[in-house]
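Hi there,

I know you've been waiting on this one. I reran it after we fixed the sequence typo, so this is the corrected version. Both the input and the resulting structure follow.
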Amino acid sequence: MTATRAKLGAASVVVIMACGSGSGVRAGIQQQFQGSWVADSFECRDVFITKAGKTLFRSKHDNTLPGFVVEGSRIRGKTASCSLISIKQTSNGYVAALNCKSQIMFGAMSVSLRLKDQDTIERYDPSFPEMRETYHRCVD
């Protein structure tokens, strides 16, 4: 997985957290998407552990980001974190401008996604619709 794809994986939920035009709507959506999420091909128990009430990544995975954790208005992956700069709704979903950083890189980027249902997010590239990644929420 490339560094950009890793950042994109970690960034997906930030988009969802900020959807809506008013602060009340935004806060409601942000609350709805708190928690841990994994890529479609992974199981939550294989990616995360909980210690002292905090969700952590299992150490057996390398630096790829099969999942991410939403905590408040920030998200974190195993090696990257992002914060939302802005968001807008499009005809196909949402696009967000994000500020992301890892241990060796930082920068702004945009991410496109669709809400499939309350527990499923699809990240996609509008220029290449066949390129997409699906994430599912982990339920304790």
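Quick highlight: Residues 3-137 form one domain.

Best,
R. S.
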